[in-house]
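Collaboration report, partner site 2.

Our partner group contributed sequences for two proteins of shared interest, and the home lab folded both. The records are reproduced in the order in which they were received, starting with the first partner submission.
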Amino acid sequence: MVLIERISQDANLPQVRRLEAVSFRAWPAASVHYDGSWQIRLTGGYPSKRGNCVVALDRSDISDIRLRLEKAARKFESYGRPMIFRETPLAAPQIIESLKEDGWQRFEESLVMTLDLAALDGHDGMDHLPSHDIGRFVDASLTLHGEDPALKPGLAELIGNIKPPYGLFLKEVPGNGPVAAAICVQDNDLAGLLQLVVDGAHRGQGEGFEMTYAALRWARMRGARLAWLQVVASNTAGLALYRKLGFREAYRYCYWRPEAQ
């Protein structure tokens, strides 16, 4: 998919700030440093881009852009992580122009989508009770995502560091392993859906819909009123699923990396 030329700055900025804040709590980095309003997020044990990136949170904070990027790069180097900048509508245009001038490459555009949870009333679906067995969930998630089992300690630590209440949703077939998995994080009146994945052999059979519906219904019963999620723009199957449930785009973000990476 061709990336749009510039992340729109016409988004509802108060909503963007709130959703960015809850997403940070829902997917916590192991180490967070601030340089002015820039947040430098680093997670040595798990290579998530959301957990290893620089995020600018105030459009007016544009001083010493290149110097600050160099300082951040040294922190990434010390963690053994590639330098990544995450562009949201909160990033000043001057920062993005500096990245372009210095040859940074733009990649992986994603949508942040929201849903009024009252809309779930129009659907039927099975209930799945959340698990609290992090080890079992991590094993299933790594298998379904096709990730290295050696990442288990890092992902388990990340999930264990989530502060708001959360549910680990997992469907397995005895003798055949995991079918689908998702995390739902309830942060007051907001519910975040993360890490939804369905086994390739079971896609197109309603497993993703069932898992998503169950997780969001659980959050709504606990008092959540608005759901949010992040999905890569090229994930057409995921977008179709979320739109079927009633999710609508709130804003977009993308990543930048130095040309040499």
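Second partner submission, folded after the first:
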Amino acid sequence: MTDRSVLVVLFDGVQSLDVTGPVEVFTGAGKVTGGRGGYPLRTAALGTAPVRTTSGLTLVPDATLAEAPTPHTLLVPGGQGTRRPDPALIAWLRENGPRAERLVSVCTGALLLAEAGLLDGRRATTHWAVCGHFARTYPRVEVDPDPVYVRDGHIATSAGVTAGIDLALALVEEDHGRDIALTVARHLVVFLRRPGNQAQFSTQLAAQTAHREPLREVQQWVTEHPDGDLSVEALAGRARLSPRHFARAFQAETGTTPGRYVDGVRLEHARRLLEDTADGVEEVSRASGYGTPEAMRRAFLKALGAGPAEYRRRFRTAAPHAKPSVPGS
């Protein structure tokens, strides 16, 4: 199939960004390739009436599901409407989902695929907040609550909301290579992609945001200066607190200790440099605040079970189209 047509399923209670995020990525790819690598895109619902999204916006489907031709990529978004799905929608997915060359869900759209029996015996993910419910309700699905997205054969499921953009970019990269996907990402002002095996929570999201402004400022400073002096004494000085008071207040308000927070930020920063740049291990270790390659190697082995060089190798093996970006390119 020359054209990788995309059909987006609409229903009342759909999450608008689950729809528009991937649509912008696929549309952008068509523009970047001058139409040669386009994704003819249509939306469809059970009926022709506009559907109301969870945010109150209304979307008008291009066609009914009954009249829509089988697409190359069938995309099923999530939203509150997945809680009590229309049986007719589930029946349509059960019949037509297997016909698509690629079956993709965003956020809780995975629940619709599971309800239709399309994820039985497969590994899948969804928004972290409903992974427990997902696993209990559909025991035949291997639910992985951690990744941003999961590929299992021709089926891809993604985590919450913006993860749909990550997955769409990964599909564009798979179809057209890293340069096209990178151009689309730059136009959307997002990272090229978070790798599918990256945790849904970044360090900053996993930790709570502190209530007090001085502590919030410290959190932001740590994120922006992983190579700085991030000792408890130095951070306490920035918050204008004694080290003991700072450590107690930080843990009480963020749910983690200053040391663990710093460790997470540095690890995340180092991972991103290894994934997205050609910087050597020694350069990455300095930029991420480890000081020496050996210190970074110990941190990687403890957290990830692999040293930095092995982590980079595995990442590139898992993402065969990926190649180091060149600074300034």
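Feedback sent to the partner group on the second submission included the following. The CA atoms of residues 233 and 243 lie 5 Å apart. Confidence is low (pLDDT under 50) at residues 195-203, 320-329.
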